[in-house]
Each structure stands twice: as structure tokens, then as C-alpha cells.
């Protein structure tokens, strides 16, 4: 898609939701600036915004900031769960204690 865009093969980029195209703010801004240079219109199917005004550009960045936050929080939860499971498994794999009644 990026190769076609660089060759000016399309005039619009349509996405279902903004966070589906990128969850990283810096990556999205770089892509969005390239779209602007090539006069490609960015359209989100579910979010209504017009990126021609300063306030709408700011709203776009806010939406992407929350998308990146959501992605990072999901990653943290997954790592915490894997860490917990790893420690829990280590406890289960220890040799059982032998209890000898007196």
C-alpha cells in the first residue's frame, strides 16, 4: 500500500478505525505527513473528523495517543500474566515435601 501511495496510485485512504492502522503515535504521524505531502485524503469509517483544521488534527493525535496507551497497557497485562504463570509453574514443579508423622 505504501509503495502504491508513493506512486500516487490513489487519492483516499479509508480505514475502519484509526487505531486499526497504527497504535504507535510516531509511526502514524510519519505516515500521515507522507499522505499530506501526496495530497491523499485520510478517512476513518467509524470516527468522523476533518483533518483540515488545527483542532481536528489535535483530536486525531489525542485519539492515537489513547490507542497507543491501550496497546501498551495490554502488553503490560500480558507480560504480568506470563510472569505470574511462570512463577506459579515453578512453585508447582518443586518436589513435594515429605511429611512424616511422629
Automatic annotation (TrEMBL):
<keyword id="KW-0233">DNA recombination</keyword>
<dbReference type="GO" id="GO:0003677">
    <property type="term" value="F:DNA binding"/>
</dbReference>
<keyword id="KW-0238">DNA-binding</keyword>
<dbReference type="InterPro" id="IPR050639">
    <property type="entry name" value="SSR_resolvase"/>
</dbReference>
<dbReference type="Pfam" id="PF00239">
    <property type="entry name" value="Resolvase"/>
</dbReference>
<dbReference type="InterPro" id="IPR036162">
    <property type="entry name" value="Resolvase-like_N_sf"/>
</dbReference>
<protein>
    <submittedName>
        <fullName>Recombinase family protein</fullName>
    </submittedName>
</protein>
<feature type="domain" description="Resolvase/invertase-type recombinase catalytic">
    <location>
        <begin position="1"/>
        <end position="89"/>
    </location>
</feature>
<dbReference type="GO" id="GO:0000150">
    <property type="term" value="F:DNA strand exchange activity"/>
</dbReference>
<dbReference type="InterPro" id="IPR006119">
    <property type="entry name" value="Resolv_N"/>
</dbReference>
Amino acid at each position: 500500500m505504501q509503495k502504491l501511495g508513493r506512486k500516487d496510485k490513489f487519492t483516499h485512504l479509508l480505514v475502519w478505525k484509526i487505531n486499526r492502522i497504527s497504535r504507535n503515535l510516531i509511526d502514524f504521524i510519519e505516515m500521515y505527513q507522507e499522505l499530506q505531502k501526496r495530497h491523499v485524503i485520510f478517512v476513518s469509517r467509524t470516527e468522523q473528523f476533518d483533518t483540515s483544521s488545527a483542532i481536528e488534527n489535535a483530536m486525531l493525535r489525542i485519539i492515537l495517543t489513547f490507542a497507543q496507551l491501550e496497546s501498551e497497557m495490554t502488553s503490560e497485562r500480558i507480560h504480568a500474566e506470563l510472569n505470574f504463570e511462570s512463577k506459579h509453574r515453578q512453585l508447582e514443579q518443586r518436589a513435594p515435601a515429605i511429611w512424616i508423622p511422629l
